[in-house]
Write a structure and sequence with these properties.
The chain has 12 helices and 21 strands. By secondary structure, the protein is α+β, with helices and mostly antiparallel strands. The strands form 8 sheets. A 4-stranded mixed β-sheet has the order 1-3-2-6. A 4-stranded antiparallel β-sheet has the order 13-16-15-14, with no helix packed on it. It has a 3-stranded antiparallel β-sheet with strand order 5-4-7. The longest helix has 19 residues. The protein is globular.
Length: 406
């Protein structure tokens, strides 16, 4: 791991507004299969006594069947108490679970202990990107940041959950979540316009773990900056899987992973293994190849990514719980998702040498350090920049159908 100078600015100073991870309170509201989530909702709301439904719900201090809470911003769910007015099943939405696993979530505020409404307010389909810090675990490889166009839950398989830094403070790509004056200062020092998207791309290429948190070294060399931005755009494209109009990632011909033997209808837990000689991923009797060793060994959040992804789809749930309402067997869609995940991890691994060379060029200088940013008045960011935008351009329904005031 590259040593980080004390003068390298931290992401938490450069992108000052951040939000903690979601705390679901009950795992059954999230899963890899949208139809199973709808079936869980029907099992919860379809009958039985309130005591029976409460046992299925898994109440906490934050949420019970009688909790009264506002809607999640932008989600048209009921705001009546679940005990008497559950309303229709909320349509599951795609979210980023942990570093690289795209799953489904029931977007109902009554089901989630800490849903982070401020994140839902700024999510959109065309502009917003989220940077999520990852735990620094000695002896375990892994990126300092992951990025998503989907709303991330901030989960980490091991270690401390990450904080979520939206690129924009408002939907529609309005008001970058950057220290005031940072873009102007970078543009002046580099002699070229620098946008919020450029800064995030640079961050995707240059961010590092440090003892103090995620560090983002900056450069005053225009050619190094241009190289980092170009590299970071490819990193973002891979993390977001071509979101915002790009093509989906694909391996070059001859290296593209294919299903050589279809996974069986029931893939048991622990059936995932890797054959390094044949570059093959085995799912019981199923086989996918070629799978580069770097994709198999890819770690994030303190765990091997492919093993975490597989476990979330095959680990048994406690009988009689809503989490046990799940597909009867392996889903074909999961095979397609696995092929794409292998592709993303393999292509990200191929970028490591370029990122290492970029790091050497950054360290060779000239740097833009935290002290220089303080001297220019960019740091520290004002306290208001660390809080979410307070007024947005839409109404939100509060508890029991009341309108919430922002």
């Amino acid at each position: 791991m590259r040593a980080v100078s004390d003068d390298v600015p931290l992401l938490s100073d450069l992108m000052p507004w951040s939000v903690g991870p979601l705390r679901l309170g009950r795992g059954w509201v999230l899963g890899p299969d949208a139809a199973a989530l709808k079936a869980r909702w029907e099992a919860l709301t379809g009958g039985g006594s309130e005591a029976e439904r409460s046992a299925l719900f898994r109440p906490t201090r934050a949420r019970t069947l009688r909790s009264s809470v506002p809607q999640l911003p932008g989600r048209p769910s009921s705001t009546g108490r679940l005990a008497r007015d559950p309303g229709p099943c909320p349509e599951p939405v795609r979210v980023l679970h942990g570093p690289y696993d795209q799953q489904w979530l029931l977007p109902d505020h009554r089901l989630i202990d800490v849903a982070r409404p401020e994140l839902w307010r700024v999510a959109d389909d065309g502009h917003q990107l989220f940077a999520v810090t990852q735990p620094r675990l000695p002896g375990t490889p892994g990126p300092a940041l992951v990025f998503s166009a989907l709303l991330p839950d901030g989960h980490a398989p091991a270690g401390r959950p990450g904080r979520v830094h939206p690129l924009y403070r408002r939907p529609g790509g309005a008001e970058p979540n950057l220290a005031p004056g940072l873009l102007d200062h970078l543009s002046h020092r580099l002699g070229q316009p620098v946008s919020a998207a450029d800064f995030l791309a640079w961050t995707a290429a240059a961010a590092r773990h440090s003892p103090a948190g995620c560090a983002v070294p900056l450069t005053a060399a225009p050619d190094v900056w241009a190289e980092g931005v170009e590299l970071g755009r490819r990193v973002l494209w891979l993390h977001t899987r071509g979101a915002h109009g790009g093509e989906r990632p694909r391996m070059p011909g001859g290296r593209r992973p294919y299903v050589r033997a279809a996974p069986p209808s029931a893939v048991p837990p622990g059936a995932l293994s890797y054959d390094p000689d044949g570059e093959a991923l085995h799912l019981g009797e199923g086989r996918i190849a070629p799978v580069p060793a770097d994709a198999w060994e890819f770690h994030a959040g303190g765990a091997r990514v492919l093993e975490s992804w597989f476990a979330s789809r095959t680990e048994p749930a406690e009988p009689g719980t809503l989490a046990a309402v799940r597909p009867a067997g392996w889903q074909r869609e999961w095979t397609s998702e696995l092929l794409e995940l292998v592709t993303v991890l393999a292509l990200l691994a191929e970028l490591r040498p370029e990122r290492a060379r970029l790091g050497e060029r950054i360290d060779a200088g000239p740097p833009l350090g935290a002290a220089g940013l303080r001297g220019a008045g960019v740091l520290p960011a004002p306290e208001g920049a660390r809080r979410p935008a307070s007024v947005l351009d839409h109404h939100e329904e509060g508890p029991e159908g009341q309108f919430a005031l922002l």
